[in-house]
Write a structure and sequence with these properties.
Number of helices: 11
Oligomer: single chain
Radius of gyration: 18 Å
Shape: globular
Largest sheet: none
Number of strands: 0
Strand content: under 5%
Order of helices and strands: HHHHHHHHHHH
Length: 290
């Protein structure tokens, strides 16, 4: 999209993107928690299939092709690729020892903090209703995942925190993109060699299965490739505060996905938390509009 999406397009694309982000958590935990594939191979296949999907999208939609040359006019292209790789690799290794809900809390909590701090540094001043909505969403998120949840291993928690910081920076670097799909494709292509290098270093842990490969390809081509291109395309229509607040709904969506696809039990706590988080997002969004 050369122009910012319309309000209706923003709502639809945002919903699809948040579902894709939640699917990434579910697919990654399914693949790595069950030992169907090693974390390094999952990361490499995820980034590689994401790159292939995005290049195909560029070709078939006649979007401007990504400039992979070193002398690009976008000076942050390699930092963006590095942030994408750093997010993907730490995300995968963290989910080796972490439950889906715990990982989602740490990841998106860190993303939110990162983007809010950057927004404040850049001089953005959220209105009072946005702060109210953000606080309500945060309380709902904590209520959903904290009670009765075992503390995650320190190393895994630290890795997921790094993943959240990297994703927050990566998202903010994409706000000024005029060719989001092409730029995202270029970032994925540049990130693949980094992931392949990790696979080479950790070859002793190499493990593949048909199920693991399929899950990695789904995570890369659909949940990551398509999802990230959509996220890049809508960032120009979102403030950093609103973008951070919206991402707080991902753990709720992931929990609902667990109920539907993994036969997890529905609970009153989940229902109450969903109302608080989604209600907080609505308050923040309407507060900015007013």
């Amino acid at each position: 999209m050369k122009n910012p999406p319309s309000p209706v397009q923003t709502v639809v694309l945002t919903g699809l993107t948040l579902c894709a982000f939640a699917a990434n958590s579910l697919l990654t935990r399914m693949a790595l928690g069950g030992g169907a594939i090693d974390a390094a191979s999952f990361t490499t296949l995820r980034l590689g299939s994401g790159a292939a999907m995005l290049l195909a999208i560029c070709h078939f939609t006649q979007v401007k092709q990504p400039n992979l040359a070193t002398g690009s006019k976008r000076p942050h292209k390699w930092p963006a690729a590095l942030m994408l790789f750093l997010y993907a690799v730490t995300f995968s290794f963290a989910y080796l020892q972490m439950a889906t809900g715990t990982g989602a809390l740490i990841l998106f909590g860190t993303v939110q903090v990162t983007m809010i701090l950057v927004a404040l540094k850049e001089g953005e001043k959220p209105v009072a209703w946005e702060w109210v909505g953000l606080l309500l969403a945060l309380v709902g998120l904590v209520y959903l995942v904290s009670p009765g949840l075992a503390a995650p291993p320190l190393g895994a928690a630290a890795l997921m925190g790094v993943a959240g910081i990297a994703w927050g920076i990566y998202s903010l670097l994409g706000r000024g993109s005029t060719d989001p799909i092409a730029n995202t494709a270029g970032n994925f292509v540049r990130a693949v060699p980094f992931a392949a290098g990790v696979s080479c270093v950790s070859w002793q842990n190499f493990q593949l299965s048909q199920a693991g490969i399929v899950l990695a390809l789904l995570s890369g081509a659909i949940a990551s490739g398509v999802g990230y291109s959509l996220w890049y395309s809508i960032l120009r229509a979102l403030t950093a505060t609103r973008a951070a607040t919206l991402q707080l709904s991902v753990p709720v969506i992931a929990a609902v996905g667990g109920i539907v696809f993994l036969q997890e039990a529905m609970s009153l706590r989940l229902a109450i938390a969903a109302v608080m988080i989604l209600g907080g997002i609505g308050i923040a969004t309407l507060g900015r509009k007013r």
